[in-house]
Model the fold of this input.
Amino acid sequence: MFDGKIAIVTGAGQGIGFEICRQLALQGAKVVLNDIDQNFSKYASQKIITEGGECIAHTGDVANSNYVKQLVNDTVKQYDKLDIAIANAGITLFGDFLDYSSDSFDQVMKVNLGGTFFLAQAAANQMKKQGMGGSLLFTSSVVGHQAHKQLAAYAMTKAGIEMLAKNLVIELSQYKINVNAIAPGATKTERTLHDPEYEKIWSTLTPMGRPATTRDIADTALYFVSDAARHITGQTIVIDGGWTAISPSPF
Done:
């Protein structure tokens, strides 16, 4: 499905990002896997290679716009082009609104908004130069649609990411670049599995009776960056088993 395609995925050392990389690689894409943690990025890329995919680890912090440019430049140097860029990197810093620190706020904004914005910018400039179009995909969240306690700053970034996808329709459609977002709900990942109550709670709160798997999210992501979605742009798909339709709180 993705034979000959070159893709970058950020924040992909584990969880949703890793599974997106894995599925892209197993379906023929050559993938550059970014993570801020070198151990994660190397282990994840090697795991994909062991399964038969082509994947290169690239370690760095997407909050640094210069690093993001280097990520794109190194990908093009290695593979001569870029077809798909998925801005998945993000951080979640919980905190009460009334005493949320400026340091936490700045960090969330730089990684979630800045990392997405500048990857889109660098990738789009490369795709424009190539003249063959391309696909950009951003990872939002259900909290970009529904209020969640102690996540005011994080939710701002996710709503902003969805608006960025919509706004870039004006900027990038002329270059045949489509831009979309996915908004995962509760998902079983390495991080959430540390909480023994997580799956039980979200199985109760989710109308479909379980939290998402990383494969659930990756399947939707791959659709958005496939040729099947070439005429879809500026859209967000919520992948939450129906949670936002009724929105029961876990608190």
